[in-house]
Amino acid sequence: MPYTLPDVWTWDMWFADDGTNHHVFYLKASRALGDPNRRHFHVTIGHAVSDDLRTWREVRDALIVSDEPAFDDCTTWTGSIVRDADGAWRLFYTGTSKAEGGLVQRVGTATSTDLSTWRKQPGAVTEADPRWYEKYGTGQWFDEAWRDPWVSPAPDGPGWRMLVTARANTGDADDRGVIGVATSDDLVTWSVQPPASTPGAGFGQLEVPQVAWIDGRGVLIFSCLANEMSASRRSPGGGGVWAVPLTDGEALFPIERAVRLTDETLYAGRLVQDRDGGWVLFAFHHVDAGGNFVGSLSDPMPVSWAPDGRLRVSDGRFDHLLDHEEVIQPTGG
């Protein structure tokens, strides 16, 4: 059964594996708010554990907002977790401040030895650089996008790479979505880099990005809703979780190749490898058949490569979406 909590909505999530238990961290907010749109600014980072990725036990929350003044005294949003060379866990998360009305996003970090008790490190470690990225008030968007950090070892050498939801500083308002990048040698000091994709692929924003290698093939996933896409990309389908098969040697992520993994009933997808080496997709239940917000975490859904080279949810429940998307043939990695 999906991970549903009776008193809170749950949505964006990320995972860590300590070798014994799987840990899921997720955004949560009280259902007493009434209007689910209010959840974004009344949010806590929750935590649950499982030994099989199916049955979860809620434990103490991971993070709340900081006391004022701080870059994260308004919200603590989506992130990711890695383990450093000394065995400590590092949680990278999105923060916004009350002083800026929650409209400017930055990335901060917290550390832990046990995935349970977290200690925030002072200040933000990255934010949008105006040389390449849209800043609040300089474009036609509702906020300054620099969130959802996905941190992993650098693909082309030592060090680490952070992918973030960002917007380019050129292009049409609904077409500026890019994958932002920062790099680090030590997970402490970060340097913002030019984006890893170009605007113009039809997306206003590319939320919760993640790169994974499945059976030797690379894939980037992200999420975007129909109302945050250009008209050309929005037709004939809606939004949801998107997948971009990756080809060796490409300098930039080819976002124009994106095809949908799910429709808008699911959102904020994450790919997770189970203990048997298989890959599954998690997402949160976004809306029901009537368009009402749900707010619970899905069960794991196995994924596989289709014969035509596209990643798909293996049970075929979303195969009909691919009828409207271009077929891309990825190469091995």
TrEMBL record:
InterPro entries: GH32_Enzymes (IPR051214), Glyco_hydro_32_N (IPR013148), Glyco_hydro_beta-prop_sf (IPR023296). The keyword Hydrolase applies. It holds the Pfam family Glyco_hydro_32N. Keywords: Glycosidase, Hydrolase. The keyword Hydrolase applies. It comes from the Bacteria. Residues 22-226 form the Glycosyl hydrolase family 32 N-terminal domain. Belongs to the glycosyl hydrolase 32 family. This is Glycosyl hydrolase family 32 N-terminal domain-containing protein. It comes from Agromyces salentinus.
